[in-house]
Amino acid sequence: MNRNKLSLALAALLLTPAIGAVHAQSTSSSSSGTQDQNGTSVQNAKQMQTITVTGSALPRIDVETPSPVTVITAKQIARSGLTTLSDVVRAVSADNSGSVPNAFSNGFAAGSSGVALRGLTVNSTLVLIDGHRNANYPVSDDGQRSFVDLNTIPLAAVERIEVLKDGASSLYGADAIAGVVNIILRRSFQGVEATADVGTSQHGGGFTRKATFLAGGGDLEKDHYNAYLSVQYQKDNPIMASQRGFPYNTGDLSSLGGPGLGGAPGHAAGTDGAIRPNTAGSLWQPLHGCTTGPLITDPKNGSWCRYDAKNRYAQVQPAMEQGGIYSRFTVKLNDTTTAYLSASYNEAKTTTRGAPRSIQSSTPNNTNNIALPVGNPSNPFVVPALISYNFGDIPVGFNYDNHNARIVGDVSGQVGEWNYDAALVLNHEWLDSTQQGYISYAALMDAVAKGTYNFANPSANSAAIRSALAPGYNKTSTSDLDTLDLSANRELWDLPGGPMGLGIGAQIRHEAQNDPTLNPNFEFQGLGNAQTKGSREVSGIYAEVDMPLLDSLEVDASGRFDHYTDAGNNFSPKIGFKYKATDWLAFRGTYSKGFRAPSFAENGSSSTQGFVTHTPPPAFQTAHGNDAYVLPYSLSEYTLANKNIKPEKARSFTFGVVLQPTSWLNASVDYYNIKKTNNIVAADTSSALANYYAGLPQAPGVTVIPDLPDPDHPGALARPSEIIGSYLNANSLKTTGIDVDLQAHFEFANNWQYISELTGTQIFQWKETLADGSTQSYVGTQGPYNLSSGAGTPRSRASWSNTLVAGPLTVTGTLYYTSGYREIAADVGTLGLYNGDCLSTNPITGLNFPSSCSVGAFYDFDLTGSYAFNDHFSLTASVMNAFDRKPPFDPANYAGGGLNYNPTWSQAGLVGRFYNLGVKVKF
Q1: Is 74 strand, coil or helix?
Q2: pTM higher than 0.70 for the full model?
Q3: What secondary structure, in 3-state letters, does 841-889 show?
Q4: Where in the sequence is the domain holding 789, given as residue range(s)?
Q5: What is the pLDDT of residue 304?
């Protein structure tokens, strides 16, 4: 067990939970150090116990492995001021493109939250609890990507979170291409601990209340058992756009040179409605006196009532309610054998509200030119009348109620020279979704024909009439994961640097997903559709060998073989090294191969219909006289599963330097390079649109369905209504970058401490190669725009935390930073579909909007503190976004309800300055 000063210094550093930032990154993790009152590790070499680090199957004394690992302790989480596991994990600087925020309430996977390390989307980051897999969210992101919902994992029982920022398929199998998030729960607890917190935004809305309770008893060494119970509850009120200032509370951006509300009645008619005789040259006129806004008159189009749907209905933050219970009973059977049984139930409810549905829709049935027949009570003309109308008397929204039930049984011990562990995991997740306010096509056509719905006087409509038009729909989606994990390890023989270690393991699991159709028989207008069903059996075996060849050189090799009943076989190898050049300088690196098995949405009995906001190209707009027909609209993308799809493959390598030039300064820099091949993608939307506008044939398997003709220019090319294709292995991508971690620790007299940490991730490259050999680069842009929330790929994310500990007082300030990006996206703009490829333009002038075609950087500062009056009572407080920093203007983002900001990176900006106050009691 020869360990030089660097190893001991690094171990002491990594076991110190005194860093206040949630981004706290370190080279490895530990559960073995004891801590004094101020959180400083007092562990030394003699006290060290062997532990297992995420990314390794072997217990070790030197906790620094060849792979970089981020550690976030419970103390760090408390000092951050963040209250949900979702916020904590997504604050890690390595989280990037494809991340799923709670504020994305109009996506397929609304009601959930997911992490995307290295920007490789949520389906390439594996989320574990105590080293074991979890059931995926029952609904796939974008109807395609499977992932674990972070909202169903409460914080109360979390001991620490380990984030492995390296490929790990050689031990964990599929989905670990970008890395692993391993949530470690408390092994035992004695005593009683309870917290209560309340918080509110300075600008209104978002009032939150949270309570936790933790109680346990029994000493494993003395009593041979421990049992504890953890309970958590949190409820957050919604924040409405109307509670925020311009330009985040309106759809009228005309004062900034953008689109206004008076562009056309089809986009501004509101509940008041507008109508016109179905004859050439006729003008629109309001159905009745305006109630949604002043009358707007345009010589070209006519008159209608001003209507700002975003101000009236859009949400900055949905209403959320989360709670859970976790219990664990551990028994020490003898000196070498320990067993535990844990059970948990967690629930996350999300309630979203939206703008009233319009009578005009392009999918699944085109009603853009719907006309009231002669004799309809709302039609004053002697000819059929085109109508523009929003059903403002029918509330619109979704309720998502996600449940997660999990049971784990585990036995670990020692037989001869072998240490073993056997675990059985049973995990079932079910999501109840309730939709309301979407208009039934059949009921709409019946109401128009019979005149049963009164458009001219909506107050005259009965509840029964409204219910017939929008009957609503309920469905329950399920996801299952049953796993048997077996592992063992032992020392083999001594090498010059220490004993050689061997770890082996096997896993058998059952996976299933059943997500019924979102829009049965395409009944509801303007609502996408997705349905997923599939199941499979997976078996895998793996091995790891750790070889300390010298006191200064360690080599680690591992590999895993997996068999999928629906995706075939795969072998994933990995090799890593760690070299200590001096007492203060070490080098580390890894090379690995990984894979991602197709999701059930990609190869099951599945299909997906989604919508993207599309603006026709300038030439098309000119051909249609720049009328309402060419304003931005929802384009349908319909994708079918492919049972012959192959798994995605990846190769990655890392290289890092770890330094400790002084006793108070530590630094690490790690470079990563990942290349994915066989990428599973849908039909190329940009190519399909370019071919359509150019009159060229489509690629095999791709179909573009045209919309109804423009009534004012019937001879011109109709705009595209829907693109149909299937998933295929077509593309490859490559991403490179670095992680930086600088930590400084200072200790002063009278038990004072000051700790400063700067951490960050810089992406050098994020480039995708398409099937035709062309490339698309996304780093520093808002691409890939068709991915998840269209959040883009910021080049840099970082945090800088400073913690002052003065006896019973602890104060932490953390500055978070996300770089700006160009408002372009190669997956939708490289073929000239937008003016200058800018995602946002003025629909009248065609000019970039904003003129810079860029989105600024976002940073915010959180200030938290706690004061321990005694060993039993402490007070906590925080001011989140203390400087009330506003989010950068982003009119192209579609995740935040079209409120002109990007909720994935700057949600804190629109929430605004937020105050929290709490108490904590311990016995």
Answers
A1: helix
A2: yes
A3: ECCCCCCECCCCCEECCEEEEEEEEEEECCCCEEEEEEEECCCCCCCCC
A4: 5-243+317-353+399-438+488-606+641-682+727-820+856-922
A5: 87
